[in-house]
Amino acid sequence: MSRIDGRNHDELRPVKFTRNYTKQAQGSVLIEMGDTKVICTAMIEDKVPPFLKNTGKGWITAEYSMLPSSTQSRKIRESSRGKIDGRTQEIQRLIGRALRSIVDLDTMGEKTIWIDCDVIQADGGTRTASITGAFVALVDAVNILMENGTLQKWPLKSFVSAVSVGIVDGKPLLDLRYEEDSKAKVDMNIVMTDQGEFIEVQGTGEEAPFSKNDLMELLALGEKGNAELIKMQKLVLGELADKLQNIREE
Amino acid sequence: MSRIDGRNHDELRPVKFTRNYTKQAQGSVLIEMGDTKVICTAMIEDKVPPFLKNTGKGWITAEYSMLPSSTQSRKIRESSRGKIDGRTQEIQRLIGRALRSIVDLDTMGEKTIWIDCDVIQADGGTRTASITGAFVALVDAVNILMENGTLQKWPLKSFVSAVSVGIVDGKPLLDLRYEEDSKAKVDMNIVMTDQGEFIEVQGTGEEAPFSKNDLMELLALGEKGNAELIKMQKLVLGELADKLQNIREE
Amino acid sequence: MSRIDGRNHDELRPVKFTRNYTKQAQGSVLIEMGDTKVICTAMIEDKVPPFLKNTGKGWITAEYSMLPSSTQSRKIRESSRGKIDGRTQEIQRLIGRALRSIVDLDTMGEKTIWIDCDVIQADGGTRTASITGAFVALVDAVNILMENGTLQKWPLKSFVSAVSVGIVDGKPLLDLRYEEDSKAKVDMNIVMTDQGEFIEVQGTGEEAPFSKNDLMELLALGEKGNAELIKMQKLVLGELADKLQNIREE
Amino acid sequence: MSRIDGRNHDELRPVKFTRNYTKQAQGSVLIEMGDTKVICTAMIEDKVPPFLKNTGKGWITAEYSMLPSSTQSRKIRESSRGKIDGRTQEIQRLIGRALRSIVDLDTMGEKTIWIDCDVIQADGGTRTASITGAFVALVDAVNILMENGTLQKWPLKSFVSAVSVGIVDGKPLLDLRYEEDSKAKVDMNIVMTDQGEFIEVQGTGEEAPFSKNDLMELLALGEKGNAELIKMQKLVLGELADKLQNIREE
Amino acid sequence: MSRIDGRNHDELRPVKFTRNYTKQAQGSVLIEMGDTKVICTAMIEDKVPPFLKNTGKGWITAEYSMLPSSTQSRKIRESSRGKIDGRTQEIQRLIGRALRSIVDLDTMGEKTIWIDCDVIQADGGTRTASITGAFVALVDAVNILMENGTLQKWPLKSFVSAVSVGIVDGKPLLDLRYEEDSKAKVDMNIVMTDQGEFIEVQGTGEEAPFSKNDLMELLALGEKGNAELIKMQKLVLGELADKLQNIREE
Amino acid sequence: MSRIDGRNHDELRPVKFTRNYTKQAQGSVLIEMGDTKVICTAMIEDKVPPFLKNTGKGWITAEYSMLPSSTQSRKIRESSRGKIDGRTQEIQRLIGRALRSIVDLDTMGEKTIWIDCDVIQADGGTRTASITGAFVALVDAVNILMENGTLQKWPLKSFVSAVSVGIVDGKPLLDLRYEEDSKAKVDMNIVMTDQGEFIEVQGTGEEAPFSKNDLMELLALGEKGNAELIKMQKLVLGELADKLQNIREE
């Protein structure tokens, strides 16, 4: 049985990164995974949240939002409702944790890097695309701190990417589109480093419980997908990717 | 004295419209006026606000927002603050009024067209660019209603565009960039139709009052700018622009 | 064609200022323009908003509200809704800008003057009446700062007043009552100084665009109305008006 | 020991009712008790809250607010804070209960009477003045329903008034001014009918407990004050007061 | 006529205090009055609200909440509504005032004691049970401050308890259950000290006014009920109760 | 290396269920896992959310809250802040999903079962204890619907329980206490059925990525813990557990 867009079960959609997509943020990347498009930016602020004041440590925090026009039936703005819904909160907490996990906050100095992921078109996998794209924006922002001498040492410990997997019609699939996602019995988001380690594993079988065997297959798909995404991040980062790797190996 | 980007005092920045910028909305346009970039979309909803129920009339409403990364120092999300600030409210009310003024709401049927203007990069004139871009998105959305037979008659009565003008260092200028805008003593937004009539004139001399003569010069600049913008709207709308004009002349 | 209350097209309603209307505020004025009645007060606070701290500058800010019983069908309190609606925000921003424009904030010291405009009865033109009345309250409050020696120099640069004009049944009218306002195709608020300069011009043709000629006629009415209002402000301020003028002429 | 304004311990301040103070509400009264001034209005709405739908019963609800300029240091608007504070809620619940207690809601039909009490100048006793003034506004509003034939029978069962009493410097006092109130060890609000019955008794000894004897003295003062206030309500209501009494006696 | 649970008109329900009900708070008491069950805790925080900074004084503040499952039809959480309703505000202000009235805040040092009253099962009289239980938790918390030497002197001036009384079917009753409370024409909460003095008297006759004689009978029932409750507080506090009394007598 | 409370690395804390803990809810259970204590209730409401109207389907939704006194430093109420924080939203979404996953919503009829989990004492693992306890309350509530004939068929498809696991000082541990949790590099919540299938797996390595091997060890601990918890649920449910199992096997 082939997928709606003819992909194999373990095949990613076409991925494209556009660096320097807008000019105000220190890092600004448009990531496209098929029809899912997210503007990921990284902006540096010279202060930290209250709980980090006078610790010398830095912080990374993320916000996520969908444009009202990003979905087929218009999504009401959270500013109009006056509150951020649970799904958004879950996603921005996930993005923030994922990026903090690969940064040495201790050597960043008292700075906050704000990650903003704004979905301009949604077709499944927006939260995982956000993480994958935001990492590239983060590297660009940190590079500015390196180049202008604010930082002496790259505070990034790994690459990080994320991908969704799920079981649709009994079959494990990599990188679900919206149409697949809405039929999935099990849905999992997997965040990994370039060393093949896990940062976050979130699997939910709301419609039906899943067996340990299912879980193993999904993890394997996630490992494959993330390995490919990180390869693409390295490609698009070019020299910066090399720098990052060299420094780590020292 | 020349302007920071070498333009004449009565010269617009380069303007670019990208139609069908995203795929979910019925109309979706990226408008660029120099470095100001706004995604303008029009989405059709098959119901109207309570005050129009059972009247057979339609409605057009607009929302405006700036991405946090659209400005040099990160703009806090209104959803995080839990409320929409006064400036945003003013702007979205202006956009809504401008578009409603050129639509025959009586013949639209009980539908709402949602206009969303999301600024992805800001360099002055975002509210006027929003109006100019949103009109093009609106035409595309209405065209779908014409093509699928929902509407029998074009409900659009005019083209509409908007431009900012102001007095900077004593000199009237057309289409202010952010740097100019922040030094302007007088600031005016002018919304006009293709018949050269005014829909909205909003001039403010917070820093210094302005004379009637100043006012006349600013209006003249606004007339010139809007005439050029509407010419560009016609160009980008092509056949649709012709249809619109023919119908009006009948 | 005569108006509902028999006025000429260029005639103001009867205007009445009651100074010292309440006792707690430094300036407190009841302004009546026909049946529109607004309590305008000015209160001095010995601090400034954060963005002005340690600049030595002062600030003027305005709030506007309508009593629930001021309108024919009861207006729901904004405190009950939990938010300030867009119209109110627009109006209080307008009042604030208008008053700041004629004050030399640099010489005021780090003080905020709070202007409150509370409409106790509404019959059209509440925002323009608020500006005209608030100016008188502001003069009284500033006078206290002069008399007790806090200020050495009058920081007021001009008188300021405001009036509404509009086109009703094709005819330009000065100072619209509610019944006229609700039928107006074009609606404009004009804020001016006693030197005949403009501070704010806000014209809207939501129902129908207006020609440049219409605009000129409306501006002329606004000039006439404001000149008369400022004459009345001078009358009611008596000696204080003279002081203000003398100082300016020095 | 005499009081700051020379009154006896059991003496009310000068009381003044101005009926028809504004024109939009069905009942509109300015009550002045010394320097405390409250606009009390009653507006009729042709629907009831959800819990009364299809019961044939009516409802009375009250809202209370202080103008920012009513107090010596400016009171921040509750609409600006985005919420109604505890004190305001307590007061508007008290006013609503007091008025509902003397109305036969069963014979009112499915109508809500909105009572609004807006303090324009505060000098102690604003909540009790609100009740006393609101009753007069309520009578005027109900009278309209009687006169236009909506109601066949007066639904008012009693007159109602309220007054504050307290112990200041060890001495029980009637009708406290702000300066007295802020020094009071015990503070009590007493709401009564013209038959000398109690509707509400709220006594608080936050600063110091009070004895049963204190309580008795305060109740006696409250009875005296309310009897006088109701006499004044009858005077100002004139014929309407007679009607009300006759009907009750039938 | 006997009561639903066979009690005499002047009889309390069975009362039970469980001290140290949970382990995190400095004082933690489960109070049961019949089927009404409230967890009352006292937690010490080493700072005071802004208005007490640098005064050397302490503060006591209370919060009250009902679990959604405490009432027969599920009570919507106030956090879900986004605001605290009027009844809750009234109750927590009452609890706070009651406890502050018997504490010498001047000798407490700059500390806040947070009183939390969380109703886990409601059957009438939750606010009065909260006060009675919270006092015991407060004593335990203060005792910790005495034992660890933070305080040198007991800052508690009296015992405090509270009870509800009301008139049901024309008969004054002590300690109303929910079923009685919902039929009561008059409802009164009485807060008293162990010296037989009143701290708060709140009586409401929303359904029907009450006579002075009714009031006297209700006060007598309240005195009886509070005397019994304070006896039980002393019993459960044991040695601590003695300490408290001895110190006061010195 | 032994754990702070002497447990083995794969040992649960003492678990205790108290059924019928309060009387108003249809199901009410106090679950204690060591010092973590949560009141879990299930209440039946005869309506469904709008998206299920007229579908014949039922719904289960969960809310979670911590009493201010449940944690060592007092937790500010979400009702006081006016919003529900991200963590709470995440948890209540998790509890809701977990319970819905084992219920046949199609055969429930148009009913909502409200699950409330209120933490009265917190020592780690409150969200997993909530799920484990809430399941027992849910069975009791559903049993009432069976007994009164509202339901003809048990809609429960499995037992469900949850447990936390984590890596502390390099060692995988089952059922973390707060002190362990705050030192854990990896933290995972595992929700399972009595058939040994997974409903939710949420693992986070914010402090450090984890290997596939770590993941396997944690899953094994989770399987062991959940098997034991479900055994205890069966014990406490007694006959009801048998009924549930019999029906499933038919």
Automatic annotation (TrEMBL), chains A, B, C, D, E, F:
E.C. designation(s): 2.7.7.56
Domain named Exoribonuclease phosphorolytic: residues: 11-141, 159-224
Enzyme class name: transferase
Catalytic activity from the UniProt record: tRNA(n+1) + phosphate = tRNA(n) + a ribonucleoside 5'-diphosphate
GO biological process: rRNA 3'-end processing; rRNA catabolic process; tRNA processing
InterPro entries: ExoRNase_PH_dom1, ExoRNase_PH_dom2, ExoRNase_PH_dom2_sf, PNPase/RNase_PH_dom_sf, Ribosomal_Su5_D2-typ_SF, RNase_PH, RNase_PH_bac-type, RNase_PH_CS
Keywords carried by this UniProt record: Nucleotidyltransferase, RNA-binding, rRNA processing, Transferase, tRNA processing, tRNA-binding
Pfam families (alphabetical): RNase_PH (PF01138), RNase_PH_C (PF03725)
CDD domains hit by this protein: RNase_PH_bact
GO molecular function terms attached to this record: 3'-5'-RNA exonuclease activity; tRNA binding; tRNA nucleotidyltransferase activity
Binding site for phosphate: 87, 125-127
Subunit structure: Homohexameric ring arranged as a trimer of dimers.
Protein family according to the UniProt entry: Belongs to the RNase PH family.
PANTHER family recorded: EXOSOME COMPLEX COMPONENT (PTHR11953), EXOSOME COMPLEX COMPONENT RRP41 (PTHR11953:SF0)
Job description of the protein: Phosphorolytic 3'-5' exoribonuclease that plays an important role in tRNA 3'-end maturation. Removes nucleotide residues following the 3'-CCA terminus of tRNAs; can also add nucleotides to the ends of RNA molecules by using nucleoside diphosphates as substrates, but this may not be physiologically important. Probably plays a role in initiation of 16S rRNA degradation (leading to ribosome degradation) during starvation.
Protein name: Ribonuclease PH
